[in-house]
Structure formats: C-alpha cells, structure tokens
C-alpha cells in the first residue's frame, strides 16, 4: 500500500468509483455525480492524501482547519469499492503521521460528519479515538440526519 499527497486526477478517479456507503453519505451535502467538484473540494484541503492498492488509487482522505475554530480540524475521506483494502495502512498513517502533524499546528479537536447508517465508518472512527458528539437533524439538500463525530486531544 502506498500513501502520498493526492493529485487532482487521483481524487477524481476515486470519486468516479465511490463505494455505495460513501455515495449515500456524500449525497446529503452534494451532488455525487459532480466528481470534479468533489475532487476540487478535496484538493483545496491543506492535507490531502491518497492510498493506492496496486495500480489504482482506492481511498482519499485529508483535513483542513475549521474556519470557525482555529484549534479544530475538519477531517474527511472517501473511497472506492476497493478502498477497504487501504484501511489498515490509512489507519497507521493517520495515527503515526497525520495526528502528530495536526497537533504541531495547534489542532486539538477533529470533527467529521457520518451518515447514521454507515456503521463501518462509525467503528473505524471509534478505533481512531473519535466519539459521536451530536446528531444533526435534517441537513443538506436531502434534509437527512447526520452524526457529528469528534476527537479531542488531551492538553499537552
């Protein structure tokens, strides 16, 4: 498994081959058929990574600082149907590299939105130290509920 900085073309590729759970989740706040917009939004993140399995990018993930809270990062990710193959490597990367990088720039909290039915993401986020912190009701153009997961770093 190879993880490196994401190129726009990598993000577009993964966006074209989104797994069903990520399509459902992303559809709450965006038009999932607009792959270029999804890739552009991800590409604008200061931290944007891509995981490759064999010859193909299979998972995109990253973080950006919240515009409202300087010590909070909004984390995101999406994957193809083959993205499950990258979970172990991405988990290790997040724990060993991404979290320390975020701490170094003053991030003490991380948040992300997850669809209530996306049980695999819930489990993965719990493993990464996140906890559900709020239920956001009726958001996005589809007026669906979403869960806000949050991870708080201990004070140094």
β-strand percent reads: 25-35%
Mean pLDDT: 94
Gap between N and C termini = 32 Å
Count, helices: 5
Going by CATH, the architecture would be 3-Layer(aba) Sandwich
Question: Would you kindly provide a written description of the structure presented here, covering whatever features stand out?
Answer:
It is a single chain. Helix 1 (8-16) crosses helix 3. This protein is an alpha+beta fold and 156 residues long. 33% of the residues lie in helices and 34% in strands. Strands 1-2-3-4-5-7-6 form a 7-stranded mixed sheet, sandwiched between helices.
Offer a quick outline of the entry.
This protein is of the alpha+beta class and 156 residues long.
Topology:
Layout lengths: L1 E4 L2 H9 L3 H7 L8 H9 L3 E7 L2 E10 L6 E8 L7 H18 L4 E6 L4 H9 L3 E9 L4 E9 L4
Parallel strand pairs: 4-5
Antiparallel strand pairs: 1-2, 2-3, 3-4, 5-7, 6-7
Features:
globular, 34% strand, Aminopeptidase, alpha+beta, 156 residues, seven-stranded mixed beta sheet
